[in-house]
Automatic annotation (TrEMBL):
The keyword ATP-binding applies. Transmembrane segments: none annotated. Binds 1 Mg(2+) ion per monomer. This is UMP-CMP kinase. It comes from Acer saccharum (Sugar maple). The keyword Protease does not apply.
Length: 239
């Protein structure tokens, strides 16, 4: 039986599993990334003269993050940065660390934060937009803290797609995109890591009043009708 993760509030506030040790899972390859350059964060220069509007998009594997991000892009003109897609692009580009990212994704573990944050930052820096959807990030407290340190930016909104495990498993196994991690073994590992590493991040933003929890069960259009008001409240986003 799959446990339901939909009623998460108790889990979110209390869970600090020992698998947090996974956060220490690291390797040295990120040292081969470009050295850190000072960034100006919210002062404008780093984001081409506008204060960035950052939305983090959280939820378990298969909860529908990518699907809803597409709709947000269409309706509200955001730039979609999927952390997973950026990492998969590194694998395809066949860099020396690509193989290590591939192993990490196959295991359902979290790639060292420095790697992921630098990929995200690079995309933000080269974008002409100032509205960003950062999908599948932060997946751990370590991710969150690294983002704050490296970009000096903070999210304005955090969306959380709340979905029962059995539904997430069903969707992932039917995803049919040829992903190495869309198999039952990896999905089970990913669900454990989601619970132990990602839920503390959800809890963190809940306490800070930034979290919008969306019931991720229903058709994609029905779910988007819960998402729409979050952005429609900001008049500047109407396209
Ligand atoms: N509301 C929904 N109902 C049923 N299937 C969905 C829904 N939203 C997305 N899917 C499908 O489920 C799979 C996972 O969705 P995806 O957007 O990739 O989720 P995530 O990015 O959170 O892993 C995809 O095949 C997608 O087409
Ligand atoms: N912040 C992130 C995001 C993804 N990843 C890796 O990339 C995998 C796929 O992430 P994804 O966001 O594309 O997955 P879905 O939630 O869309 O299924 C994760 O299981 C991790 O191995 C990561 O290490 N750190
Ligand atoms: Mg996705």
């Amino acid at each position: 039986m799959w446990r339901r993760v939909a009623s998460l509030s108790s889990l979110i506030s209390s869970k600090r599993s020992s698998t947090l040790n996974q956060a220490a899972y690291s390797f040295k390859f990120f040292e081969s990334f470009t050295t850190e350059t000072p960034t100006q964060g919210k002062d404008g220069r780093f984001f081409k003269g506008k204060t960035p509007f950052i939305t983090f998009v959280l939820g378990g594997p298969g909860s529908g993050k990518g699907t809803q991000c597409e709709k947000i892009v269409e309706n509200f003109g955001f730039t979609h940065l999927s952390a997973g897609d950026l990492l998969r692009r590194e694998i395809i580009s066949n860099t020396e660390y690509g193989a290590k990212i591939l192993d990490t994704i196959k295991e359902g573990k979290i790639v060292p934060s420095e790697v992921t944050v630098k990929l995200i930052r690079k995309e933000m820096e080269s974008s002409d937009n100032y509205k960003f959807l950062i999908d599948g990030f932060p997946r751990s407290e370590e991710n969150r803290i690294a983002f704050e340190r490296i970009t000096e930016a903070d999210p304005d909104i955090v969306l959380f797609f709340d979905c029962p495990e059995e539904e997430m498993v069903k969707r992932v196994l039917n995803r049919n995109q040829g992903r190495v991690d869309d198999n039952i073994d990896t999905i089970r590992k990913r669900l454990k890591i989601f619970e132990s590493l990602n839920l503390p991040v959800v809890n963190y933003y809940s306490k800070r009043g930034k979290l919008y929890t969306i019931n991720a069960v229903g058709t994609a259009d029905e779910i988007f009708e819960q998402v729409r008001p979050v952005f429609a409240a900001h008049e500047e986003f109407s396209t």
